[in-house]
Amino acid sequence: MALFLLTLLLLLLLPNAFAFFPAHQKSHHPHHSDAAHDYRDALTKSLLFFEGQRSGRLPPTQRIKWRRDSGLSDGSAAGVDLVGGYYDAGDNVKFGFPMAFTTTMLSWSVIEFGGLMKGELPHAKEAVRWATDYLLKATAHPDAIYVQVGDANKDHSCWERPEDMDTPRTVVKVDSSNPGTEVAAETAAALAAASLVFRRSDPSYSKLLLKTATRVFEFANKYRGSYSNGLKRWVCPFYCSYSGYQDELLWGAAWLHKATKNPTYLDYIQVNGQTLGADETDNTFGWDNKHVGARILLSKAFLVQNVKSLHDYKGHADNFICSLIPGTPFSTTQYTPGGLLFKMSDSNMQYVTSTSFLLLTYAKYLTYSSKVVTCAGVTITPKKLRSIAKRQVDYLLGDNPNKMSYMVGYGTRYPQRIHHRGSSLPSVSAHPARIPCRTGFTALNSGTPNPNLLVGAVVGGPDARDRFPDQRTDYEQSEPATYINAPLVGSLAYLAHSFGQL
């Protein structure tokens, strides 16, 4: 009888025990079953892309094997060493303005989410360092910053591999008589942000970056003027500054304040914030306009570090968030029918990745300080911000009307004809002989898939109606860029961690 009762008791208890067990397991990764994508794989690939964009002498650790050394005499025309750095997109020019912004955003990705990257953290830091080594060369001469290598118009008249480049490697600089506040202040921001990346792992390198950032910001602030004026024939229409240089001064000061904790920068922000456009309603964050990024970054000083004098930046950041939320009274953001944030037809995906990063970062700050966003009486929680960011990243990775990933090499269907010279032409190992300037246009105009996979490259993306033709000649939609990938690195690290993939 006792045995019977014991057996009955076990039978009654066991179902509950088994019912409890899966819930207990699931609580470790509460969203694991909701993961639509392999974010860890996407993170790995998003960092690999930067190796495909390298200029200079490639290291033995180079993983994108179809690339070779290039631009080994860059700077020699001006008697300086400007070997290294990144090609910004699908051509062979080194533009300092977007390269500096890429560096700032890669660094910010590591600062906020590097602790979640595990085995990818060394690759992320290597990607930052490839840029900062170059930026240190570009700022080595006092009161001058070298901001471009290559003549974009002549480069664009050829379609050739970087390894075959024979167009002029013109060196362009800003100095006291020909200022370029935007590019100088962005370079200062990049060096200051990167100094935080290396503070523990390489203190002497970190100090060098910060010392240089301080000097470069002083230069940017002292010699004010838009680089689009003095250097118009070189930088326009490619990377003209349309938003002016006030946003970069605010952004640069914000990063120097974060990196140094020097009250001088806090004073600078408090005195100049309004005149630098801290409360403007422009809500586009990218290589040209940094206002929104500065607001989010400065809101952290208030929310997390309790710097009360920066209280207004919480409000400025909230205004940006309210502009993104569909259905709220202040919503001004356009979305495609398939749900993609849409700012403009040319390289729209850069705004998707940068905005998603800001949403996840601001959600982190709000969570830390137990705060929310209120949009005309509607409460927006950090969880809501994360869900919007995840939706955007998921669209990019394949949850879209075309059922395709916009990251090369991720998923089963992705762009095959990206607007990228090195990817579209046979590699040096497959075709050792030089491919002349004009001969390459046959590849540009061909409908065949690119012979070399630029793994991890995120293209400009679909149009306002979710259409994507996958044509190499369509640079607006089919060209990848470093500043598209840089903020995505941070978002993918967060998502991979939160879904138990890292």
From TrEMBL:
The active site is at H419, D470, E479. The keyword Ligase does not apply. It comes from the Eukaryota. InterPro entries: 6-hairpin_glycosidase_sf, 6hp_glycosidase-like_sf, Glyco_hydro_9, Glyco_hydro_9_Asp/Glu_AS, Glyco_hydro_9_His_AS. GO terms for biological process: cellulose catabolic process. It catalyses: Endohydrolysis of (1->4)-beta-D-glucosidic linkages in cellulose, lichenin and cereal beta-D-glucans. PROSITE patterns: GH9_2, GH9_3. GO terms for molecular function: cellulase activity. Its EC number is 3.2.1.4. It is an enzyme of class 3 (hydrolase). Residues 39-491 form the Glycoside hydrolase family domain. Keywords: Carbohydrate metabolism, Cellulose degradation, Glycosidase, Hydrolase, Polysaccharide degradation, Signal. The keyword Transcription regulation does not apply. Residues 1-19 form the signal peptide. PANTHER family: ENDO-1,4-BETA-GLUCANASE (PTHR22298). Belongs to the glycosyl hydrolase 9 (cellulase E) family. This is Endoglucanase. It comes from Iris pallida (Sweet iris). The lineage of its organism: Eukaryota, Viridiplantae, Streptophyta, Embryophyta, Tracheophyta.
